[in-house]
Design a protein that fits this description.
It comes from Bifidobacterium biavatii DSM 23969. Helix 3 (63-87) runs antiparallel to helix 4 (92-115). The chain is mainly α and 131 residues long. The radius of gyration is 24 Å and the shape is elongated. A two-stranded antiparallel ribbon has the order 1-2. It has helices at residues 19-34, 41-51, 63-87, 92-115, 123-129, and strands at 54-58, 117-121. The protein is built from five helices and two strands, in the order H-H-E-H-H-E-H. It has two domains: 2-57 and 117-129, no CATH class; 63-115.
């Protein structure tokens, strides 16, 4: 069959639903997709059939800004390390600065982690309970 050519998923199956079943399934899919989950109905159905659940990881919108801040802190630490290697000594001020920067990284990462949510939904159970 020509539709099989260059496809990762080369087996097609036909499933039938009542209108109510399809609407409930489609509604659950849209809900998961809108929160950053699987983006196609095919991927959604494969996840349910293969795993019994769909995992959605919600990452904060400012992830790039968070990484930018962490990179800047890393550059500061690298500059101190470069000077320490060149002069073969580090003064107390530099060590305190590194420890302060490390605490800043920990604070940024903890704030970032608190915004990440993982939604592992047993979709089949949720879908059936809506009936």
């Amino acid at each position: 069959m020509s539709w099989k050519r260059n496809r990762q998923h080369d087996v097609a199956k036909l499933f039938t639903f009542t209108s109510d079943q399809w609407n409930a399934l489609e509604s659950t899919f849209r809900s998961i997709r809108d929160r950053g989950g699987v983006q196609t109905m095919s991927a959604f159905v494969r996840e349910i059939l293969m795993n019994g659940y769909v995992i959605t990881v919600n990452v904060p919108a400012d992830a790039r800004e968070t990484m930018k801040q962490i990179r800047a802190i890393g550059r500061n630490i690298n500059q101190v390390a470069f000077i320490a290697n060149a002069s073969r000594s580090v003064d107390e001020h530099d060590i305190r600065m590194i420890l302060d920067e490390q605490k800043r990284i920990e604070t940024i990462v903890k704030a970032f982690q608190s915004q990440i949510t993982i939604d592992a939904r047993t979709v089949a159970g949720e879908w059936l309970s809506s009936k």
